[in-house]
Amino acid sequence: MKPSGPTIRTIPDGDDRERLVCGDCGFVMYENPKVIVGAVCTWQDRYLLVRRAIEPRLGYWTMPVGYMELGETTEQGAAREVWEEAQARVEVDGLLTITSIPQISQVHLIYRARMLDDRFAAGPESLEVALLSWDDIPWDSLAYPNVRASLEYEREVKGVAAFPPLTRS
Amino acid sequence: MKPSGPTIRTIPDGDDRERLVCGDCGFVMYENPKVIVGAVCTWQDRYLLVRRAIEPRLGYWTMPVGYMELGETTEQGAAREVWEEAQARVEVDGLLTITSIPQISQVHLIYRARMLDDRFAAGPESLEVALLSWDDIPWDSLAYPNVRASLEYEREVKGVAAFPPLTRS
């Protein structure tokens, strides 16, 4: 059976805005923004970047980043993404950037993280992983503006113990 | 028709964790953590608190706070909640606290905000709204631990232009 799912836009009783409702079963889906977590990970003076093996932006470089899952903290989610995409173990530190993208209802929380050793490998969603010096970062092949902003802000607060997150939207 | 909705726990093809699937229509629901936004709002040396008119914690006091909605930034969501619950207009400033509650898959982002004037009123989800001096805050009747933590941290960073968010979980 082909799933139809919640595809009808209507305001449910007692609500004040449109929600998606399933025409088959009547289920009301409360859609809310999604949280994306990730980390700018460093080992000494080098940066851990992954080349995306999946769309969107397949083939472009990013810090490890992905959807936060149920039952984890934001820091645990960031460390999990680093493990899944780059097979590296990190200690997650302060929040570097908080970026709202209201057009697609996402909130990106990118942390600063320190690699516990210099081991890494490509996970299933990565074409390759690299530990790069600042000058070797492929600036023209970054997946999103937030990658550059988060890398640059990490460099700005390097050695600073406590710092405000860079707010972007 | 009584909605059944996505109630069957199963791992969809190509996925690596259980999701809820609708037994009627086959729709797969990707559940992710929800973002709660709010603000500790001040007018001069007083704090804007609302008494909850809805469960959970009906009758207890909190800063204005609620689910982030689609199509807004975190700051816009915080200002919207302040308007809906306390009918006050604010300028949202830095991120005060970021609290993960993995047990219920929520991320709370509480901002510092300055009221633009001293007008306020109870919105439909509030029993009453008050602008209280620090000593008049009903410390024994606060709705959640995060309310106290956010209020105390606001006081700690008062007058400080840029500060790291307090991280809690």
TrEMBL record, chains A, B:
Q: Which GO terms describe its molecular function?
A: hydrolase activity
Claim: Hydrolase is one of the keywords in the record:
yes
Q: CDD domains attached here?
A: NUDIX_Hydrolase
Organism name: Paramagnetospirillum marisnigri
Q: Which domain of life is it from?
A: Bacteria
What PROSITE patterns has UniProt attached to this entry?
Answer: NUDIX
Q: Which Gene3D superfamilies match?
A: 2.20.70.10, Nucleoside Triphosphate Pyrophosphohydrolase
Pfam families associated with the record: NUDIX, Zn_ribbon_Nudix
Q: Per the record's keyword annotation, is Hydrolase included, yes or no?
A: yes
The root-end lineage is: Bacteria, Pseudomonadati, Pseudomonadota, Alphaproteobacteria, Rhodospirillales
Per UniProt, the keywords (alphabetical) are: Hydrolase
Q: What is this protein called?
A: NUDIX hydrolase
Residues forming the Nudix hydrolase domain are 30-154
Q: Which InterPro entries does the record match to this protein?
A: NUDIX_hydrolase-like_dom_sf, NUDIX_hydrolase_dom, Nudix_N
